[in-house]
Amino acid sequence: MIVNGILPASTLSGTPLVSPLWGSMPTAGEEAGGASGASGASFADIFQYAIDAVKESDAEKTQAQYLMATGQLDNPAQLTLAASKYELSVSLLVQLRNKAVETYNELMRISL
After folding, report:
1. Which end of the chain is more exposed for a tag (fewer CB within 10 A), N or C?
2. Cβ(56)–Cβ(73) under 8 Å?
3. Rounded CA gap, 9 and 32, in Å?
4. Can you give the three-state secondary structure of the chain, one letter per residue?
5. Residue % of the chain over a pLDDT of 90
6. Residue 34 CA to chain centroid, in angstroms?
7. What value, to the nearest 5°, has the Cα angle with vertex 82 and ends 98 and 64?
């Protein structure tokens, strides 16, 4: 939708600026051939997906930095967006790790 001649940011490059985090991730039931009947992904899958997101966003940031350094980047804001996306994905990964460690420590305090 165009408002007063201004295009939404998501249509400027033809692709959305922020992709959904869980959109293409397989569920636990899909990986196990549907035998488990679980409706969600395991923690290992989510953690691996977060690691892959960090790797992907780092590659995008590095590519944008290279293009900026060589003068091939037309829009310098793309570098800022790539760097912000990288920072957010690293932050999410660190939060997931902290939550996993916190949960592990809590389980170790349980006496049986």
Report:
1. C
2. no
3. 39
4. CCECCECCHHHCCCCCCCCCCCCCCCCHHHHCCCCCCCCCCCHHHHHHHHHHHHHHHHHHHHHHHHHHHCCCCCCCHHHHHHHHHHHHHHHHHHHHHHHHHHHHHHHHHCCC
5. 56
6. 26
7. 135
Residue-wise pLDDT for 38-93, tens only, equals 457 888 898 899 999 999 999 999 999 999 999 999 999 999 999 999 999 999 99
Retrieve residue 6's tokens.
Answer: 């201004």
C-alpha distance from residue 20 to each of 16, 24, 27 (Å): 10, 8, 15
Kindly list the domain boundaries of the chain, sorted by start residue: 41-112
> Which residue in this structure is represented by tokens 């992907």?
56
Query: What does the mean pLDDT of the chain come to?
Result: 79
- pLDDT for 22 equals 54
Return all residues near 96 (Cβ < 8 A) that are at least 6 apart: 46, 47, 50
Q: Please give the Cα distance from 57 to 49 (Å, whole number).
A: 12
